[in-house]
Specification:
Mean pLDDT: 91
Order of helices and strands: EEHHHEEEHEHEE
Low-confidence stretches: 184-191
Helix content: 25-40%
Number of helices: 5
Shape: globular
Largest sheet: 5 strands, antiparallel
Radius of gyration: 16 Å
Length: about 190
Protein backbone atom coordinates (compact mmCIF):
# COMPACT_ATOMS: atom_id res chain seq x y z
CA UNK A 1 0.00 0.00 0.00
CA UNK A 2 1.35 3.39 -0.97
CA UNK A 3 1.42 6.28 1.43
CA UNK A 4 0.14 9.69 0.41
CA UNK A 5 2.84 12.08 -0.61
CA UNK A 6 3.14 15.07 1.70
CA UNK A 7 2.58 18.28 -0.27
CA UNK A 8 5.43 20.74 -0.65
CA UNK A 9 3.96 24.18 -0.04
CA UNK A 10 5.27 27.05 -2.13
CA UNK A 11 3.18 30.16 -1.61
CA UNK A 12 3.62 33.04 -4.07
CA UNK A 13 0.67 34.92 -2.55
CA UNK A 14 1.56 37.99 -0.47
CA UNK A 15 -0.47 38.06 2.75
CA UNK A 16 -2.56 41.12 3.57
CA UNK A 17 -3.98 41.88 7.02
CA UNK A 18 -6.89 44.16 7.79
CA UNK A 19 -8.54 44.88 11.12
CA UNK A 20 -10.70 41.73 10.98
CA UNK A 21 -9.39 39.73 8.04
CA UNK A 22 -6.34 37.89 6.82
CA UNK A 23 -6.01 37.61 3.04
CA UNK A 24 -3.69 34.72 2.23
CA UNK A 25 -2.93 32.04 -0.29
CA UNK A 26 -5.33 29.14 -0.57
CA UNK A 27 -4.43 25.86 1.12
CA UNK A 28 -5.61 22.30 0.56
CA UNK A 29 -7.46 22.44 3.89
CA UNK A 30 -9.65 25.27 2.49
CA UNK A 31 -11.41 22.75 0.24
CA UNK A 32 -14.34 22.04 2.57
CA UNK A 33 -14.92 25.75 3.22
CA UNK A 34 -14.80 26.54 -0.50
CA UNK A 35 -17.12 23.63 -1.25
CA UNK A 36 -19.62 24.98 1.31
CA UNK A 37 -19.39 28.48 -0.19
CA UNK A 38 -19.49 27.56 -3.89
CA UNK A 39 -22.23 24.93 -3.46
CA UNK A 40 -24.55 27.26 -1.55
CA UNK A 41 -27.44 28.35 -3.84
CA UNK A 42 -27.65 31.68 -1.96
CA UNK A 43 -24.04 32.43 -2.90
CA UNK A 44 -24.01 31.28 -6.53
CA UNK A 45 -27.41 32.60 -7.58
CA UNK A 46 -25.70 35.60 -9.20
CA UNK A 47 -22.51 33.75 -10.21
CA UNK A 48 -23.66 31.27 -12.79
CA UNK A 49 -26.55 30.03 -10.67
CA UNK A 50 -25.35 26.44 -10.37
CA UNK A 51 -23.89 25.07 -7.13
CA UNK A 52 -20.40 23.64 -7.52
CA UNK A 53 -19.60 19.97 -7.08
CA UNK A 54 -16.84 18.73 -4.77
CA UNK A 55 -14.54 18.33 -7.78
CA UNK A 56 -15.34 21.78 -9.17
CA UNK A 57 -14.56 23.39 -5.80
CA UNK A 58 -11.26 21.48 -5.72
CA UNK A 59 -10.38 22.55 -9.27
CA UNK A 60 -11.16 26.17 -8.36
CA UNK A 61 -8.84 25.91 -5.34
CA UNK A 62 -6.06 24.49 -7.54
CA UNK A 63 -6.52 27.27 -10.11
CA UNK A 64 -5.93 30.12 -7.64
CA UNK A 65 -2.15 29.60 -7.11
CA UNK A 66 -1.72 29.32 -10.87
CA UNK A 67 -2.97 32.88 -11.35
CA UNK A 68 -0.16 34.13 -9.10
CA UNK A 69 2.51 32.01 -10.79
CA UNK A 70 1.49 32.99 -14.34
CA UNK A 71 0.24 36.57 -13.91
CA UNK A 72 1.92 37.86 -10.76
CA UNK A 73 -1.49 38.59 -9.25
CA UNK A 74 -4.52 36.53 -8.38
CA UNK A 75 -7.00 35.53 -5.69
CA UNK A 76 -6.62 35.46 -1.95
CA UNK A 77 -8.52 33.31 0.51
CA UNK A 78 -10.41 35.55 2.94
CA UNK A 79 -9.88 34.33 6.48
CA UNK A 80 -11.77 35.72 9.44
CA UNK A 81 -9.11 36.49 12.06
CA UNK A 82 -11.34 35.86 15.07
CA UNK A 83 -12.28 32.32 14.01
CA UNK A 84 -9.51 31.35 11.57
CA UNK A 85 -12.26 30.28 9.16
CA UNK A 86 -11.98 30.69 5.40
CA UNK A 87 -15.05 32.76 4.50
CA UNK A 88 -14.45 33.58 0.84
CA UNK A 89 -12.25 34.55 -2.08
CA UNK A 90 -11.22 37.89 -3.54
CA UNK A 91 -8.71 39.08 -6.07
CA UNK A 92 -7.57 40.00 -9.53
CA UNK A 93 -7.54 37.73 -12.57
CA UNK A 94 -7.29 37.67 -16.33
CA UNK A 95 -9.73 34.98 -17.46
CA UNK A 96 -9.51 35.94 -21.15
CA UNK A 97 -13.28 36.07 -21.27
CA UNK A 98 -14.99 36.07 -24.62
CA UNK A 99 -16.98 39.21 -23.99
CA UNK A 100 -17.65 42.47 -25.81
CA UNK A 101 -16.12 44.84 -25.19
CA UNK A 102 -12.88 42.94 -24.69
CA UNK A 103 -11.27 43.24 -21.27
CA UNK A 104 -7.71 43.07 -22.62
CA UNK A 105 -5.21 44.79 -20.33
CA UNK A 106 -7.75 45.32 -17.55
CA UNK A 107 -7.40 42.99 -14.57
CA UNK A 108 -10.79 41.71 -13.45
CA UNK A 109 -11.70 41.87 -9.78
CA UNK A 110 -13.98 39.28 -8.26
CA UNK A 111 -15.20 38.39 -4.79
CA UNK A 112 -17.38 35.87 -3.02
CA UNK A 113 -18.28 35.43 0.64
CA UNK A 114 -20.00 32.68 2.58
CA UNK A 115 -23.68 33.53 3.02
CA UNK A 116 -23.35 33.78 6.81
CA UNK A 117 -20.64 36.43 6.33
CA UNK A 118 -22.80 38.74 4.20
CA UNK A 119 -23.78 42.11 5.61
CA UNK A 120 -20.86 42.46 8.03
CA UNK A 121 -18.67 44.78 5.96
CA UNK A 122 -16.12 42.04 5.22
CA UNK A 123 -16.38 42.48 1.45
CA UNK A 124 -15.74 46.25 1.70
CA UNK A 125 -12.80 45.68 4.04
CA UNK A 126 -11.24 43.02 1.82
CA UNK A 127 -11.85 44.91 -1.43
CA UNK A 128 -10.26 48.10 -0.08
CA UNK A 129 -7.17 46.10 0.93
CA UNK A 130 -6.93 44.37 -2.46
CA UNK A 131 -7.34 47.65 -4.35
CA UNK A 132 -4.57 49.21 -2.22
CA UNK A 133 -2.35 46.21 -2.99
CA UNK A 134 -3.16 46.57 -6.69
CA UNK A 135 -2.30 50.25 -6.70
CA UNK A 136 1.03 49.55 -4.97
CA UNK A 137 2.03 46.52 -7.04
CA UNK A 138 0.32 46.86 -10.40
CA UNK A 139 0.69 50.61 -10.72
CA UNK A 140 -1.91 52.74 -12.38
CA UNK A 141 -4.41 50.51 -14.13
CA UNK A 142 -8.03 50.27 -15.06
CA UNK A 143 -9.71 47.40 -13.26
CA UNK A 144 -12.99 45.82 -14.29
CA UNK A 145 -15.69 43.74 -12.62
CA UNK A 146 -18.69 41.94 -14.08
CA UNK A 147 -21.86 41.83 -11.98
CA UNK A 148 -25.31 40.31 -12.47
CA UNK A 149 -27.84 43.18 -12.72
CA UNK A 150 -29.88 41.68 -9.86
CA UNK A 151 -26.91 41.49 -7.47
CA UNK A 152 -27.61 44.78 -5.69
CA UNK A 153 -25.15 44.06 -2.85
CA UNK A 154 -22.20 43.65 -5.25
CA UNK A 155 -23.29 46.66 -7.28
CA UNK A 156 -23.31 48.77 -4.07
CA UNK A 157 -19.88 47.39 -3.12
CA UNK A 158 -18.43 48.19 -6.56
CA UNK A 159 -19.88 51.70 -6.43
CA UNK A 160 -18.49 52.28 -2.92
CA UNK A 161 -15.05 51.13 -4.14
CA UNK A 162 -15.03 53.63 -7.00
CA UNK A 163 -16.19 51.45 -9.88
CA UNK A 164 -18.49 53.07 -12.43
CA UNK A 165 -20.97 51.35 -14.69
CA UNK A 166 -19.42 51.22 -18.14
CA UNK A 167 -22.13 49.33 -19.97
CA UNK A 168 -24.58 46.48 -20.04
CA UNK A 169 -23.46 43.45 -22.08
CA UNK A 170 -23.84 39.68 -22.21
CA UNK A 171 -21.53 36.93 -21.05
CA UNK A 172 -22.26 33.30 -21.87
CA UNK A 173 -25.80 34.28 -22.83
CA UNK A 174 -26.53 36.12 -19.57
CA UNK A 175 -27.04 39.83 -19.13
CA UNK A 176 -24.23 41.39 -17.05
CA UNK A 177 -23.13 44.84 -16.02
CA UNK A 178 -19.55 45.81 -16.76
CA UNK A 179 -17.97 48.18 -14.25
CA UNK A 180 -14.58 49.86 -14.48
CA UNK A 181 -12.50 51.59 -11.88
CA UNK A 182 -10.73 54.59 -13.36
CA UNK A 183 -6.99 54.65 -13.79
CA UNK A 184 -4.41 55.27 -16.47
CA UNK A 185 -2.36 52.67 -18.21
CA UNK A 186 -2.93 48.97 -17.76
CA UNK A 187 -1.26 45.84 -16.52
CA UNK A 188 -0.22 44.69 -20.00
CA UNK A 189 1.86 47.87 -20.34
CA UNK A 190 4.03 47.08 -17.31
CA UNK A 191 7.73 46.74 -18.17
Amino acid sequence: MQRAVAPVRIDPVPPIETARLRLRGHRADDHEALLAIWSDPRVVRYIGGRPATRQEAWMRLLRYPGLWCVLGYGYWAIEEKSSGRCIGDIGYADFRREIEPALDGMPELGWVLAADSHGQGYASEALAAVLAWGQAHLGEHTAVCIIDPDNTASIRLADKAGFALRQQTTYMGDLVLLFTRPGTGNVSERP
